[in-house]
Design goal:
alpha+beta; Phosphorylase Kinase, domain 1; six-stranded mixed sheet; four-stranded mixed sheet; 21 helices; 14 strands; 50% helix; globular
Length: 622
């Protein structure tokens, strides 16, 4: 149901805050569902919030005034030093106004008159005015804010979200964002937003020192009272504005429905459920850009259809993944911190008469005239029929099968027991990126040619029921000393040679073989029946030199990383290449580096190691 990475267990205060947020959210949902009137209200909590915020700003002004007096009147003593410290503190706590981003294109009305006209028209529908500037980013998100002392309005459109929505959903998105300007969200105001920032700064400056020395213990005691006061006021202001924040989100949902229709607003919220998967694709393409050579125009070609690739990827996500995400959102409950809620629970989604489409300005083909780029047809999932091995592809779930306890986790998938069946496990992808059905087909194909891969009983797009293997991974065996680096490198080389004896599945070319493309010590299980290779999600047909290059690059990255396994990885790499250097081709090594950078699970640090890793491999080959 919820295979995301587990959150850290919240402390008592954070646990209390989440509980109150959930309680307020459920009460507010019941309220707006009953009378359908979520309009902003200036209640007692809002008045108290402003009073607390003004008191906090008053304290900042007092620090400023005291600092000035100490510097002027205490000249000739040590008081000016104290005054300077107070002035610096007042500077850190000062109210701030937003600024236009300097790392993204910013459009003004003269530069994009049609886009601004569209925004103005939607703004009039939701009961507010337009914006002064529009920023374009690559984020899978959208937001509104203000900038400058005159509080001018800024709309930020993330192309990553824009490109995975339909024209009508885009109108709903703009309606949602513009609705925030008229919905009474006190946290967006200059007074309370800056008060929250000041309290957060106080808390940061006065936080206890971790693992303190004896003198630092005394300092922690001195900080205890101001830290507690800052924490208490922050919680108080948070609670006083929590209900207004949640009400503002419901109002924004209603604005989305008025602008684009209830159907479009609900569909937009469904799209927001899979933004993590869209972000993964964008990260993958960004990593590719860090290693593609500038002069290689052919390799830059995929960037030209980046947004089409993104749209096609999101369109290929099956309905059962959306349903799982909806249930996860219900389990996780209400949140006041998310930029957009991940489940539909506002007025746009509540029972009652739906909002019809309110947009009237259309083009000749009767589609809303929002900026639009060509969109590809949804990608069709591969079809597989039952084979001689008896495995089959299920469209959404495995009938009658129940998963048991979690027994392992990787970067992108978790492995669970199957209740009542000791010899099988379920591997479940967390982000819906790969296709377990296609992976299962490869595994059964190579097993049919005698290659040591786990048996597969059933598979869907995101789940696979596979043979449960006993024994450590090669990496774990390295740690316990059961196997040495030289022996491990020899095993990897033998597995690569054996795999490349298996002909490609769709080509009669003798040079095309089955490739694993992720063969390393943590993907080899040392079972009582011998080594078996797992994780075939990257497998494809191609030249063996690419597979050798991938394994070499993976080991070399660890070897040059300077971490605990660095020397072990280097020795394993040397042993793997011993007598096999001619199998690592120039084309394979270059392509392996590009593909490795494209791996969405790679960190920025790991990508930066690729240059040194390639140099190490070339040095060992020569």
């Amino acid at each position: 149901m919820d295979p995301g990475e587990p959150e850290e267990r919240p402390g008592p205060l954070e646990g209390l805050r989440r509980s109150l947020a959930r309680r307020h959210g459920e009460a507010l949902l019941a309220e707006v569902s009953a009378d359908g009137d979520p309009r902003p209200r200036r209640d007692t909590a809002a008045v108290l919030a402003y009073a607390v915020a003004l008191a906090i700003h008053g304290a900042t002004i007092a620090l400023l005034g005291t600092g000035v007096l100490l510097v002027i009147l205490g000249w000739g003593t040590a008081l000016p030093v104290v005054g300077v410290i107070l002035l610096l503190l007042a500077w850190l706590l000062r109210p701030r106004v937003g600024r236009l981003p300097d790392d993204a294109p910013v459009l003004h009305r003269a530069e994009a008159p049609q886009l601004f006209a569209l925004v103005d028209e939607i703004a009039s529908v939701v009961g507010t005015t337009g914006v002064h500037a529009i920023a374009l980013t690559t984020d899978v998100n959208a937001s509104v804010t203000t900038y400058g002392a005159r509080r001018r309005r800024l709309l930020t459109i993330g192309l990553g979200l824009w490109e995975i929505t339909t024209p009508q959903q885009r109108i709903a998105l703009l309606g949602h964002e513009l609705g925030h300007y008229a919905n009474g969200d006190t946290r967006q105001g200059l007074v309370i937003a800056n008060a929250l920032q000041s309290l957060a700064t106080w808390r940061y400056l006065m936080r206890p020192i971790s693992h303190p020395t004896v003198p630092e213990m005394a300092l922690n005691v001195l900080y205890l009272l101001p830290y507690g006061a800052a924490q208490g006021l922050l919680m108080l202001l948070d609670q006083l504005t929590m209900r207004a924040k949640q009400r503002a989100e419901y109002l924004a949902d209603a604005a989305a429905a008025r602008a684009g229709s209830s159907e479009a607003a609900v569909a937009l919220m469904d799209r927001l459920l899979v933004t993590d998967s869209a972000e993964t694709l964008l990260l993958r393409m960004s990593n590719v850009g860090q290693v593609i050579r500038a002069q290689d125009a052919e390799r830059r070609e995929p960037w030209r259809d980046l947004w089409d690739q993104l749209a096609a990827h999101v369109d290929s996500i099956p309905e059962h993944e959306y349903e799982r995400q909806r249930r996860v959102g219900i389990l996780r409950g209400h949140s006041v911190d998310s930029t957009h809620r991940r489940t539909c629970a506002g007025p746009a989604c509540s029972p009652g008469p739906p909002w019809p489409p309110r947009w009237s300005r259309t083009t000749n083909d009767s589609t809303p005239s929002t900026p639009n780029w060509p969109r590809p047809e949804p990608a069709s999932p591969a079809k597989y029929s039952p084979g001689r091995s008896g495995w089959r592809r299920y469209p959404d779930r495995f009938g009658g099968m129940r998963t048991g306890r979690l027994i392992g986790s990787g970067r992108s998938a978790d492995v669970f027991e199957v209740e009542g069946e000791r010899g099988w496990v379920v591997r479940r992808d967390r982000d819906g990126w790969g296709d377990a059905s296609a992976e299962a087909a490869v595994m059964e194909y190579v097993r049919g040619h005698g290659y040591p891969a786990p048996a597969v009983r059933a598979a869907s797009r995101t789940e696979m029921v596979m043979e449960r293997l006993s024994g450590p991974t090669m990496l774990a065996a390295f740690e316990t000393g059961e196997i040495g680096a030289r022996e491990g490198g020899g095993v990897l080389a033998g597995l690569l040679r054996a795999l490349h004896a298996v002909p490609g599945r769709g080509s009669g070319d003798a040079g095309v073989r089955v490739l694993h493309l992720d063969l390393h010590p943590d993907n080899v299980m040392l079972t009582p029946d011998g080594p078996k290779v797992i994780d075939w999600s990257n497998a494809e047909d191609g030249p063996p030199g690419l597979d050798w290059g991938m394994s070499a690059v993976i080991l070399a990255q660890v070897a040059v990383g300077g971490e605990v396994y660095a020397e072990l990885a280097r020795e394993t790499l040397v042993a793997m290449l011993d007598g096999n250097g001619d199998r690592v081709t120039e084309e394979g090594l270059t392509e392996a580096r590009v593909r490795r950078a494209a791996n969405p699970t790679m960190s920025a640090h790991e990508v930066q190691l690729l240059g040194d890793a390639e140099e190490l491999i070339r040095a060992l080959l020569h």
